[in-house]
Every structure is written in C-alpha cells, then in structure tokens.
Amino acid sequence: MALLLCLGLTAALARGCLHCHGNFSDKFSFYRHHVNLKSWWVGDIPVSGSLLSDWSQDTMKELHLAIPAEITREKLNQVADAVYQRMDQLYQGKMYFPGYFPNELRAIFREQVHLIQNAIIESRIDCQRHCGIFQYETISCTNCTDSHVVCFGYNCESSAQWETAVQDLLQYINKWHKMDTNTSLISPSFTCLEPPHLANLTLENASECLTQH
User: Fold this and answer.
1) What is the pLDDT of residues 131-155, one digit of tens each?
2) How far apart are CA 93 and CA 53, in angstroms?
3) In the Cβ-directed half-sphere of 183, how many Cα atoms lie within 13 Å?
4) 41: confidence class by pLDDT, cuts 50, 70, 90
5) Alpha helices in 10-158 (DSSP H)
6) 3-state DSSP: the chain helix, strand, coil percent, rounded to 5?
7) Which end of the chain is more exposed for a tag (fewer CB within 10 A), N or C?
8) Where would one find the signal peptide in this protein (predicted)?
C-alpha cells in the first residue's frame, strides 16, 4: 500500500480558498449586488446575500481537512472556473420562484467545497508517484501567499533508489531541525533508517520509524 509522509507543515487557519483567485472579488461583488433581482420573494434576498457574503468563511468550516489548506494554482483555477460557470448560468435566468435561488446557491457552494477538498487531497496523493522528497508549489488559503508543500514519496523502483531516497530524507530532516533549533539532529528513533538497517528496511517499518519521531 502506498504511503505518504508530509513534512514541515503547520495547521491552517480557517479563511477560505476561492477568495485567493484573482477574479473572486469582482465576481462575488457582482453576485451580491444583483441578488435582489433573482427572486420574487423578498425573504430570499437577505438569505442569499448572507450566503454570498460568508462564502469564504463558510468554505473552510465545511472542508474538514486534516491537512493544511494549500492548493496548487492550476487546481485553484479549475475550481474557480467551475464555480463561476455555474454562478453565471444561475444569474442569466430571470427571477425565480421563492426558495429556488438560495437553494441553488447552497448546491453550488457544496459542489465548490467538494472540488476544493478533492484538489488539495489529490495533490498530496500524487506525491506517492515520486521516489523520495518532492516539492510542489501551492497557494496558502489562509493568506493567499505563495507557499509550497514538501512530502516524501515511496514509489521507488529499486533498492538503490530507496536507499538514496531515505538518505536524502535524513539530510532534509537534519537540515530542517538545525534551522529550527540550531542544533544537530541526534535521535535514536532514526537508527532504523541508517546503515546497515537500510538493506532489510520495509516501507511499513520506515513509516513507523518516521511517525514515531
């Protein structure tokens, strides 16, 4: 079974993801300002307005991710295109009967949450297709700044590749630990990753060794 170890990550604060897209402000400003033209029932207007105003905040509340919300720019563009397309189609219609418009907004919101969840998780799973340390560029959903994710993939095709990957991992951890504490990394937990143990090391044992640190 393929395993994935993500390194050097911190918990994300709840803010949202779609708001990091360049067209978000203009798009949702238009949606909010035209919401009063979309329903025959006046009660739909404040409900719909609230859904649109709280879109980013509510998104992170519904993601329920155990990993930081960091999404690649490519996947963010894909999510944004899908959301804007459905929203634009909804706004092209005339006035709707009571209850329809806010229900459609909720449906688009739920679809957006699923798209973001899948986008973030898929990028992490893709790491298993690499051998050793791998890094990919992302956007932090907490503050919309450029970020990156560093992870360790187990898809090595030979024992030599696996040994090199583990050695690179040890060097990375040692470097990261020195930057964090300004001391060298001396931990008996990692003896299982050092020669001569590498020859008989299994993926399961390596994972257990790393997660116990």
Assistant:
1) 988 889 999 988 899 988 888 888 8
2) 21
3) 4
4) confident
5) 24-33, 44-53, 55-63, 73-92, 100-126
6) 60, 15, 30
7) N
8) 1-16
User: 101 exposed, middle or buried (CB, 10 Å; 0-12, 13-18, 19+)?
Assistant: buried
Q: What is the distance between the alpha carbons of residues 64 and 185, in angstroms, rounded to a whole number? A: 34
Q: Give the pairing of strands 131-140 and 4-7.
A: unpaired
Q: Do 151 and 127 touch, CB atoms closer than 8 A?
A: yes
Query: Mean pLDDT across the chain, nearest whole number?
Result: 79
Closest CA to 210 of 8, 2, 5: 5
Q: Tell me whether the omega of the peptide bond preceding residue 196 falls within 30 degrees of 0, making it cis.
A: yes
Which pLDDT score is estimated for 181?
Answer: 55
Cα–Cα separations (whole angstroms), residue 118 to 51, 63, 205: 22, 10, 29
C-alpha–C-alpha distance, residues 18 and 56, integer Å: 7
* Phi then psi dihedrals of residue 71, to 5 deg: -120, 145
Phi/psi for 76 (5° steps) reads -65, -40
